[in-house]
Amino acid sequence: MSTDVNVGSITFTGLGSGTDFESMVTKLIEVESYHKKQMEAWKSEWQTKIEALKEINTAMLSLKSTLEKMDSMSEFLKKGVASSDASVLTASADATAESGSHSIVVNQLATNAVITNTTGLASKAEKVNTTTSSQIFAYTYKGKDYEVSVGAGASLEQLVNAINSDPANAGVRASIITDGSQYYLQMRGLELGSAASLSFNTAKSTMTHPAFDEGSDFALTQAAQNSQIKVDGWPTASDAWIESNSNTITDVVQGLTFNLKSLGNNPPAAVTISVDTDFDAIKENISTFVENVNSLRTLVKNLTKYDKTLNKASVMTGNYAVQLVDSRLKQVTAEIGQGFLRYSPGPPPSGDKLSSLSQIGILTDADEGSLTQGLLAIDDEILDDILRRETTAVAELFAASNIGGEKVDSGNFSYYSSVAGVTKAGVYDVKYTVSGGAISSAFINGKAANVDNEKGTITSMDGDSRGIVIQINDFPADSTGKGVVRIKQGKAGELAAVLKDMTNSETGALNILEDNYTDIIKSIDKKISYEEQRLALMETNMRLKFARLEALLGEYENLSTSMKSQISQLSSSSS
After folding, report:
1. Secondary structure of the chain: what % helix, strand, coil (to 5)?
2. What is the Cα–Cα distance from 97 to 497, expressed in whole angstroms?
3. Which long-range contacts (CB under 8 A, 24 or more apart) does 257-260 make?
4. Which helix (H) or strand (E) holds 480?
5. C-alpha distances out from residue 275 to 97, 103, 284, 575, Å
6. Which parts of the chain sit beneath pLDDT 50?
7. What was the pLDDT predicted at 574?
8. 549 within 8 A of 22, measured Cβ to Cβ
9. pLDDT for position 16
10. Rounded alpha-carbon distances, angstroms, from residue 83 to 92, 260, 272, 326
């Protein structure tokens, strides 16, 4: 018989009774672990749901980021610009630039002022202040005088540092240049244009060094001047030019920015700038919109589908929050755009020629059993036709941002302005009354509006329409006006705003649900921990009981062996 019972760690080896108590303990604990295993499986299910929520949330954030790159007209409505001589002039265009060509003549580039002292120094370390007291180095920039204190014994390098580190310095940079044998102080204004003149102020400078004293001379190596151009032959006078203090000119032709590079020929020749709508880039934006929306829809579809063949639900089948995401995606892409009105040919015509994605050939595939069921599909033939005919309307449908308009039923008013980030997209009722040649009352979106009779405007002060300003164009005595004013928001911006709301870390439905699921898991973990403690205690008690039983069986075994020996001896002696 071999018995090894260790009560401290409660293990059994070489059981003397021949009974496998170790297996018995293992099996009994396994049976008792059924509830713990149920909770672990339950926890795993909740963790899988959290992972699915995170996956959807990540996909929504990715879609939001993509949409925010095309939610303005300048980002969406791409314009191609070509220059007949890019070495002289290039240009860029935003969404407001009209297709066509422009003839540009560059007569002069804008430059900054550069001055250099004409008396050289032997080295950078040569002292420019040989006195025992501080001296003043003075200069004039853009019509204003500046004075820099130069310490006793200061070198040319120290003078440069003093000029550049002067807190009052308004945009002048000093440097040291050399012709190979001598060193010179060069100063340059950082701003372009004729107003940015620069000169050494001999009257206020007290420097005694020959290179900088009152009799020294600074050469103007480059004069500050404006750029000069003619656009499409204007100005017409031969000596008249459009002038700018920059070589980047933005306020001459709507939507175009000219970048002047050089003068080119002498006399200067006209450069042709051609502007065309980049239809391929616009279609690429539309395809990106559809593909990324479909990517999110496909993910939601896969996580919520029910397999009829296997009679098995997916991890998020029937989940309300995920169904809400799916519903909002479909709602945004199917409904009329925010602030858009259905088109009416009139007379007079009103509304938007395009107000929904279906009008440009983007529809949801509703075919039962189709691989793309529930996803957006593009009819390229319809899209291409409408894109060519109504380019701006297509762009507004996707990327309108704070674009206003009105529909007047009576009276005479027009949209004037709104506040980006404050005024929300939508269609709002407008009503006003004119009495005695002045606006006596006004309402926007059903709420009293602020009236400014001096400017002839009414302004919404409350609600979603807050910040909208309406211009009243005439004031006939004792009259009323009514209609609607609207702020348009394209589908890219609308969907991006919806996604921003749904992915909000505090109020987003999926994040709230994830927090709830996390709380459930924490509760399950507590129950699992309790079960683990209960099972550990049970196992300890069982091992102690079986250890005592094993010891008792060992004693009985020893007693049995002893008795058998004694009986055997008695039998031997009696015979």
Report:
1. 35, 30, 35
2. 28
3. 257/91, 257/92, 257/93, 257/94, 258/89, 258/90, 258/91, 258/104, 258/229, 259/89, 259/90, 259/91, 259/92, 260/88, 260/89, 260/106, 260/109, 260/110, 260/227, 260/229
4. strand 479-489
5. 8, 12, 19, 132
6. 1-10, 12-15
7. 67
8. no
9. 52
10. 10, 11, 6, 47
Residue 6: per-residue pLDDT? 46
Task: Measure the CA–CA gap between 360 and 386, rounded to whole angstroms.
Answer: 6
What's the one-letter identity of residue 334?
Answer: A
Helices (H), 335-400: 380-389, 391-399
Residue 481, beta-bridge partner list: 432
- The top-level CATH class assigned to 114-222 is mainly beta
**DSSP of 118-176, one letter per residue?**
SS-BS-TTSBS--SSS-EEEEEEETTEEEEEEE-TT-BHHHHHHHHHH-TT--SEEEEE
Q: Which two tokens stand for residue 159?
A: 């003078």
* Alpha-carbon dihedral sign for residues 354, 357, 358, 361: positive
Q: Match 């939507």 to its residue by tokens.
A: 255
> Phi and psi dihedrals of 353, rounded to 5?
-60, -30
Give Rg (Cα) of the chain.
43
- State residue 8's pLDDT score: 41
311's torsion region: left (phi>0), alpha (psi -120 to 50) or beta? left
pLDDT for residue 560: 83
